[in-house]
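HOLO CASE FILE
Compound: N-carbamoyl-L-aspartate
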Amino acid sequence: MKGQIPSYHTRHVLGIKDMSLENIQALLDRAMFYADRLEVEPRYKSGAWHGSCVANLFFEASTRTRLSFERAALRLGCDVLNFDTHASSLKKGETFLDTLHTINAMRPDAMVIRTDLAGHLADLANLFRAAIINAGDGINEHPTQALLDILTIKRRFKTTDGLKIVICGDIKHSRVARSNVYLLHKLGLNPVLVAPQELSEHTNWPDGITCTENFDEAIRQADVVMMLRIQAERIDKNLASDHDTYFKRYGLNAKRLHLAAPHAIVMHPGPLNRGTEITADVADHPKHSVILDQVRNGIPTRMACLEAVLENVR
Ligand code: NCD
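Model generated. Tokens follow.
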């Protein structure tokens, strides 16, 4: 099994922005392999990484990402250490860095980290023996989410070539949007971004990325509509406290979805706020919604990412 791992040439998974296309393809191919495998063999469990240890260190709230990393690590045959911020020595004044050093001293092979500190994981990565996987760093990046999103698109459409992809919501504070824009751009696609002006600022987009306030226009004939939650926890004053006004312009209901291509898929990284950015009938739509497929595809994607870094651990 180990011999089949496509070559992944860096020690960590820190972000999509600085990841080579070769590494991206290697991870996506391997994720596709595992997704196929899990479909035919739901109880699949590899013994290849028996004795390797993955530490899940989530300093911010998470349901699907944390459990999906745990499920992925267990599927690979790894041991898993889970860390609960609320019951940890952080509560006694221990710093974030001391916590990481403490856990690293227990010699996990990979540390999966979610933190509200944006853009600092690359500096930290060199301090530890363990490989680092970014499970969301503030408003910066969420690379494994973008990879699982592309896997979901590829499993539905077989290819990403020529697809019209619209990403709508709180672009400004969304690490999911950021990683997806970088990833889609590297794959030769320019998604259309939709957000109210105050939630759309971003100065560092690659060339060709546009942002509009006109959702009705942008969604026309879209193949993929990706909705985002308003990241209220990252906004000083809740810009979207007026849910009705926000929904009228930026919410996805059946009527608006009708403007997209008939085969359009609806994506959302979760957690959903039903009624704020998406109606329940659209979120649960048996034909259009792939929201739970995204959750399922998180496991093979994270198996691919974990395996890639475990292979390179000294
Ligand atoms: C997202 C996150 O935490 O960045 N969720 C996820 O990981 N699936 C998006 C969000 O919190 O809105």
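CASE NOTES: The chain has a mean pLDDT of 93. The longest helix spans residues 291-312.
CLOSED: yes
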